[in-house]
Amino acid sequence: MAYKLGVISDPEMLEIDLSPEDKFVVLATNGVWEVLTNKEVADIISPYVATRQAEKAAEALISRSY
Which of 25, 17, 62 is nearest to 42 (CA)? Predict the structure, then answer.
C-alpha cells in the first residue's frame, strides 16, 4: 500500500564532510524535499538556528511542506 503512495524502501544516502561554516543539517523525507527546495528549507529553518529552537524549526518545516 505505501509503495502505491510513493514510499520507497531504498534510502538515498549521501556522505559529506561538515565544516565550521555549516549551521545545521536537515534530515527529512521526500515529503519535504518534493515540495520545497534547499533554499526554501534553509529560509524556514534559519530564524530558529540562533535561538536553538529545533522543535519549532521542525514544526515550521512540517507546516510549510504540508
Answer: 25
